[in-house]
Amino acid sequence: MHFTTRNFEILGKSVIPGETKTIELKIATLHTMTELKVPIIVSRSVYDGPTVLLTAGLHGDELTGIEILRQVIRRGINYPKCGTIICVPLVNVFGFVNQSRDFPDGRDLNRVFPGSQSGSLASRFAYRIMQDIVPLVDYIIDFHAGGRGRFNVPQIRIEPNNEELDALAEAFSTHFILYSNNIEGSFRAACDKLGKKYLLFEGGKALDINNDVIEEGLQGTIRFLDKLQMLNNNFTVKEPTREMVCIENSTWIRAQYSGLMQNFVHQGMFVKAGTQLGKITDPYGLVEEPILAPNDGYIICENEAAIVFQGDAVYHISTKLKNDQERITQEI
Ligand SMILES: [Zn+2]
């Protein structure tokens, strides 16, 4: 390892080697005269190395990722052996305060990237992130959770056919990897266009903190940093206990009826075609309809709502595993 001689400046503030500094990204001044600022925690090693950005709370109601980054900071995982780690545990402070996914202008921040200088409030904020922070980094892990009531099994989402991302996702080693194309306007698509290596972690559901998901996120982050030789010596790497399942294609199963829903499976389970996953009933004893698995596959998300409407997405099931990988485990 070589001592770094580089200057590192972010938002007009320099961070010297060996220093940890909290820097504020000013977003806007509201009509209440309230200044909105997002704290950014930057930790530099004295040794040269890559720069990693860890973000959570892009959707303000996705709390599990916020808790993962809180623990990363609290435990000192963000003090790198080499290079620089930037933590933004809460990107959308607005949404967090309102317990909402969106920005106060009603926009989904994750659909307005790369943003513009003179666009909507959300768009301007996205622009600042892309101008002031992302150019400084090499790798990004962005932590998300399922929409309200939809519990995602912990998973890394990456674009297909990208060997470098494959290797990084393997280093992180969640039980599931889901290949999915970038969505236009997402943070992921904008980072990808700049050539940044980006992993999207999905786990749990909005307005919920789940310890199993947190553990997967934390251990994955530790393994990821170790792969980049950035993990400081206070931490040991726990090897994953399960082999990864790489999902190439998946589909949503939708409710055929409106009604009360009961669920008989749990996320992460492998089910055979025809397995009864749940049932939908009405209050009068007239309707009692099973929800059946259309194919063999893993349940990667389940809708935990007790009342569903016809057409609601209720289960997300894998339809094709990478290289027709054999089923590895019965369930998690
Ligand atoms: Zn999200």
TrEMBL record:
Q: Cross-referenced InterPro entries, in alphabetical order? A: AstE_AspA_cat, N-alpha-Ac-DABA-like, N-alpha-Ac-DABA_deacetylase
**This protein's UniProt keywords:** Hydrolase, Metal-binding, Zinc
The answer to whether the entry has keyword Membrane is no
One Pfam assignment: AstE_AspA_cat
Cofactors needed by this protein, per the record, are:
Zn(2+)
- Give any GO molecular function from the UniProt entry: hydrolase activity, acting on ester bonds
| Tagged with keyword Zinc | yes
* Matches recorded under Gene3D superfamilies: Zn peptidases
> Residues in domain Succinylglutamate desuccinylase/Aspartoacylase catalytic?
48-226
Q: Which PANTHER family match?
A: BLL3975 PROTEIN, SUCCINYLGLUTAMATE DESUCCINYLASE_ASPARTOACYLASE FAMILY PROTEIN
Q: What is this protein called?
A: Succinylglutamate desuccinylase/Aspartoacylase catalytic domain-containing protein
Species annotation: Paenimyroides ummariense
